[in-house]
Amino acid sequence: MNDSGRGRKSSFGQSMKAVMWSFFGVRKRRDLEADATQLNPLHVIIAALIGAAIFIGVLILIVRVVVG
């Protein structure tokens, strides 16, 4: 049995963690290169959409607290 077809083995949690660090803007080059080879692109896209929705929700909440 050959495992060559398993190049991208990561969990959704790992993708979410990588996206959150990217939003924060702090990432080591070593981790970035590891992410590029291991993360599932679909997981990264979904994690980015979830992260963006959370970010927008927090901004709306802050504005409502300050204005209201």
Key phrases:
68 residues; mainly alpha; 3 helices; disordered N terminus; DUF2970 domain-containing protein; transmembrane helix; membrane; transmembrane; DUF2970
Give the SSE string.
HHH
Main beta sheet: none
Rg value = 16 Å
Q: How does the helix and strand content classify structurally? A: mainly alpha
Q: What is the straight-line distance between the termini?
A: 63 Å
Mean pLDDT: 85
Question: Spans with pLDDT under 50 lasting ≥5 residues?
Answer: 1-5
Number of strands: 0
Whole-number total of structural domains: 1
What share of residues is helical? over 70%
Transmembrane segments: 42-67
Keywords: Membrane, Transmembrane, Transmembrane helix
Pfam family, one: DUF2970
InterPro entries: DUF2970
What does this protein look like?
By secondary structure, the protein is an all-alpha fold. It has one domain. It contains 3 helices and no strands. The longest helix has 27 residues.
